[in-house]
Amino acid sequence: MEKYRRILITIMSLLVLSAVIAIIDISMNLQAGGKLSFGSPQFGPGVGVVRIEGPIELSNQMGAVGLTANADAVVARLNDLERNGSVKAIVVRINSPGGTPAATQEIYQKIWKLRKKNIPIVASLGEIAASGGYYIASACNVIVSNHSTMTGSIGVIAHTPNLKRLFDKVGIDMTVIKTGRYKDMLAYYKDLSADERAIMQNMIDSTYNRFLKDVALGRNMDQTEIRPIADGRIFDGETALQLKLVDAVGTFEDAVDRARSMAKLSETSPVYDEMKSPF
């Protein structure tokens, strides 16, 4: 009898230990920013959320300042929300200093397509939504910025180190075999020629003009209104509001409420956020 009692106590102890481990795991998830809920499961018409964190690139990789935002994953998330019959509006939460033109344009175009389908989309700007981060926001119907958000920075830049003088000083020569005169025009071991600089400037100007055109389209403004302030400078939320670059100053919750209102949803309608970052 004593033997069976010890076995029963052991089993009960293991069950209690498992429960404690589960509680600790849930607590850690909540502290890490997880969106677990112990309330009733959410269902019915609501607002979907997609998050854009960090530098924006087409591929998911580890950069100098952490994991980059994967444009493909963002577009996939938007596609999921579009297919979800319960999602009646979308909030795009942006906390990004920008990224590559191609990746940024991929997300902008997807949001614009959803907007053309009359799906209300609200951009919520976090600590920073500059350059490509603002580019993406401009595709949304409404932009809500925090008071202290750093935004704007409408412009394009390309740079490469020039180590030619260092190489000359230490006696390093590069042997180059190429198929055309411009194949190594951004190489770090040589100066940029006048012709090469002109080629790069034309490319930068073309990308900038597209940036300007898309922002003007998204904001329903004339390019002549935006160009004077589209010189790379950044603004806080209050200044951006005065310049008509954003529509309101507020928090993420304010952006969700704005999306609910645009979709004619109740104040208590569910928010379908991501369980974890897709990047």
Can you characterise this structure?
The protein has 279 residues and is of the alpha/beta class. It contains 9 helices and 12 strands. The protein has helices at 2-31, 71-83, 101-116, 132-137, 164-170, 194-219, 223-226, 237-242, 252-262; strands spanning 46-53, 56-57, 62-63, 66-67, 69-70, 87-96, 121-130, 142-145, 150-152, 234-235, 248-249, 271-272. The strands form 3 sheets. Strands 1, 6, 7, 8, 9, 10, 11 and 12 form an 8-stranded mixed β-sheet that branches. α2 runs parallel beside α3. It is elongated. The termini are far apart.
Structure characteristics:
disordered C terminus; elongated; alpha/beta; eight-stranded mixed β-sheet; disordered N terminus; 12 strands; 279 residues
Q: Compute the number of helices.
A: 9
Number of strand segments: 12
Low-confidence residue ranges = 1-5, 14-40, 63-67, 275-279
Using only CA atoms, what is the Rg? Answer: 25 Å
- β-strand percent reads 15-25%
Helicity, as a percent range: 40-55%
Major sheet details: 8 strands, mixed
Shape: elongated
Please tell me the overall pLDDT. Answer: 84
Based on secondary structure, the structural category is: alpha/beta
What is the N-to-C order of secondary-structure elements (H for helix, E for strand)?
A: HEEEEEHEHEHEEHHHEHEHE
Distance, first to last CA = 56 Å
